[in-house]
Amino acid sequence: MKATKGAKALKEHVARLSDELEQLCHKNGMLEDTNALLAGEAAQQQEDNTRLREQVSTQTARIRDLEAALTQRQPRDRSAQAADKPESSAGARRRMYGVGSGSLAIDKDGLSRYYGDTTLSEFFTQLIPDGGVNNMCHLPDFQALNLPDEIVTLFNAFPLGLRNRPFSITVFSSFLPPRNKATEIAEIFYDRYGCIYGPVPREDFTGLIDEIYGTSGEPNAGGVHAHRLALFFAILAIGHQRSVDFTTSAGGGLNRSAERYYVLACAALSLAPLIAEAMAASVQTLFLVLCYLGCGTRRGCEESWLLIGVMARVGFRIGLHRDGEQFGLGTAEVKRRRHIFWELYRLDAWISFANGRAPAINLADTDTKFPEFEGEPSLMPYPYWKYRYAAACLWATTRLAASAETPSYEEAMALDRKIRTFPVPAHLHASLQGTEVWSWSKNPAVAVQQYCIVSDKELSLVFLHRNYLAVALHAENPLAHRYGDSVLAAYRCATRMCFALRDLYKLHPRIVSSMWYFWSGIFSSCVVLAAIPIMAPGCRTPTCNLAQCALENLKQACLLYQEGAAVSPQINGADILRNLERHAETTFRAYWSNPAKFTRMPPPAVETDEMGPLGEMTVTHAVASRSHSNSPNPVASQVSHMRTQRPHSDPLHGAMQDFLSGAYGDLPAGAQAMGAYQ
């Protein structure tokens, strides 16, 4: 290559390198500028972070100071907060909306009994019964029943049973009735009891009959498990119990037969200890024994409460809370276990309500499905409806009532709407006051189911409203109070409940007279109606006198209760209601004779003031100590009631707040609905 050409190529190469160097220098400058900018932003961010940390530290110290000041102030302001702002404590661990935590009785020996916010009214009369807080179980008259010592020994071991199993099951053979008699009594059981409760499908009884009587028809207890034999006796006990016609003098001696089979059922269950041989029949037997106590004697309420806990534990032990389908069980067995579980759950929830205590079964811990119903929803039978209602509404109401945290009024009203709008199959609609579309069935079993639906829904509603009612009735104008809706709701509950049972009793007195828990609702409804003219005799709407309407309905309800009490095992409540009726009328008339100068009348003097211990104060009663019952000097038993924190001069006010319980009813003519009842 020539020198001139080589120099030219070299110059071009140098020029190209110079351009690249210039570009690199430019990029380097840009990078240096970017780094400087980022360094400035980092410094600013660091400064901002430091400032934010200082602000957080300052605010944290301020919050701690405020919390300390609030802690010092709360003891002084607690009473005022409860009275003036009842809604401010929603979610608080302690109930502060004007209603306390229930009623607690403790005697000198430490024997105690607690009834919570939702306790049925009649149970409060047993808070301090004669002889203290003990003696609340049903004890049969063994001498009159003429039972052998082996049976008595086994009965006394109920429900857990004897561990060593000292007796043979053949001890029960002589008490087995002829097959046709057993079948006859079982038909009464399913006709008058099975219409409400269904823990024992007919297929189970058919299997029992075949096991006990075989093909020969002669009874033999030797080939039957003790718990299945106990179930057989329990069916006969309730069948005999329901065969009694309380409306006539005939058939009164049948109670002894019922009592004998009840003892035999308990004894047979004790022959095989629950700790070792629990099965579905164990739960079914406990269920029927509990219902026998509930239907036949009020003294068994505490025993029933304890038994439901045992039932729940046994149910969990045998897996009733888990759906049988996931274990590959047969279709019939899956359906059977579902029915037993939902019967158990519903009964547990209602007994918990009646005693104001938390249930034994938490629905969140279960996955048992409903028994399937393949027909039209409008034709759904009562058992299928009640299971769904128990899960959708009764569960929510139970949790709301049993929770240690105070629910807001808005939560209660939302649940109220859910209960009232829960659909009912058309064929189970009942004829209630002011309606003409539906009517009571001429079939006693269906009519009782209609009333059970009324009771299921309306008793749930009154449990929601009665504490709020107690607070509202202290106001100058209860209907203008924040809880005024509850005043109307409670009035409607009581009125419609009374009229519903009145109509049902006229149509089917035989079956209704044997169900005291129906009458218990009337007792509680009467107390609700009495509360309005006693606590707020001037309560009225723009178009009617609500207190006067409540008093008039109270008189009719008391007459109904007295008529039922004449043939009901529980007759003591009639005296209480007569005293309430007289006091309500006296107070109402005294107020309207001169409202400006009205002075509240003292409660009526009675030999035993059933309502005195039910106020918001601690009252001392002379009750003999259990360990010194023969002492000439009775010892004091204290009853602490924390239902209301607002003082008032009339101790009957506190009694009303503890007694408020009922169902659901129409307003008087012209009354204006408020809030959720518009």
Automatic annotation (TrEMBL):
- Where is it located? Nucleus
Skewed-composition ranges (Basic and acidic residues): 74-87
Molecular function terms, GO-annotated = DNA binding; zinc ion binding
Lineage, please? Eukaryota, Fungi, Dikarya, Basidiomycota, Agaricomycotina
| Region described as Disordered | 68-94, 625-654
Q: Which InterPro entries match?
A: Sec_Metabolite_Reg, XnlR_reg_dom
Record-annotated Xylanolytic transcriptional activator regulatory domain positions: 304-377
* Originating species: Phlebiopsis gigantea (strain 11061_1 CR5-6) (White-rot fungus)
UniProt xrefs under PANTHER family: UNCHARACTERIZED TRANSCRIPTIONAL REGULATORY PROTEIN, ZN(2)-C6 FUNGAL-TYPE DOMAIN-CONTAINING PROTEIN
Q: Which Pfam families match?
A: Fungal_trans
Compositionally biased, Polar residues: which spans? 626-642
- Protein name, as recorded: Xylanolytic transcriptional activator regulatory domain-containing protein
Gene Ontology biological process terms in this record:
DNA-templated transcription
A cellular-component GO term for this protein: nucleus
Keywords of this entry = Nucleus
